[in-house]
Structure formats: structure tokens, C-alpha cells
Amino acid sequence: MSQKKPFVLRVDEEMLKALEKWAADDFRSINGQIEWLLSEALKKSKRFPKKKIDNNNAE
Q1: Element (H, E) at 31
Q2: Do residues 33 and 22 touch, judged by C-beta distance below 8 A?
Q3: What CA–CA distance (Å, rounded) separates 46 from 43?
Q4: Measured between alpha carbons, how far is 11 from 2 in angstroms, rounded to an integer?
Q5: How many CA atoms, within 13 angstroms, populate the side-chain half-sphere of residue 47?
Q6: Cα–Cα distances in Å, from 30 out to 8, 12, 58?
Q7: Contact, 30 vs 19, CB < 8 A?
């Protein structure tokens, strides 16, 4: 699993409230919801990074 890198994200208060509600509705943390949204946007735009295959652990 890749390592996560923290960074600061500034969003409008109304947007944050809407994201918090959406996250709660989906049983996710606000961080998890933002990660999911970004992941979906990357997949939709076909920009999601390809996963590297680890041949060292292949059986």
C-alpha cells in the first residue's frame, strides 16, 4: 500500500458542511469522502495512476 502524504486543504464553510453531511450519509470520514471523490474524478477522466505490480511477491 502506498504511503499517504498529508496536506492542507482550504474549502468554503458551506462546502465543508455539505461534504461532512455527504460523508456521514456514506458512513465515511470527511477525509475518506474527499479521497473517494478525488479517486472517482481521476477514474472518470482516465487520469488515475496505474498500480505497479510487485513481482517480488508473486507466487
Answers
A1: helix 30-44
A2: yes
A3: 5
A4: 26
A5: 6
A6: 14, 14, 35
A7: yes
Q: CA 56, CA 17: separation in Å to the nearest integer?
A: 45
Q: Which residue has the cell 477514474?
A: 43
Could you tell me the residue ranges of all domains in the chain?
A: 13-46
Residues belonging to the chain: 59
Q: Which three cell numbers stand for residue 49?
A: 495512476
pLDDT of residue 58: 53
Give the pLDDT confidence of 2-48 residue by residue, as tens digits. Answer: 788 999 999 999 999 999 999 999 999 999 999 999 999 999 999 98
Q: What are the backbone dihedrals phi and psi of residue 32, each rounded to the nearest 5 degrees, phi first? A: -60, -40
Per-residue pLDDT for 53 more than 90? no
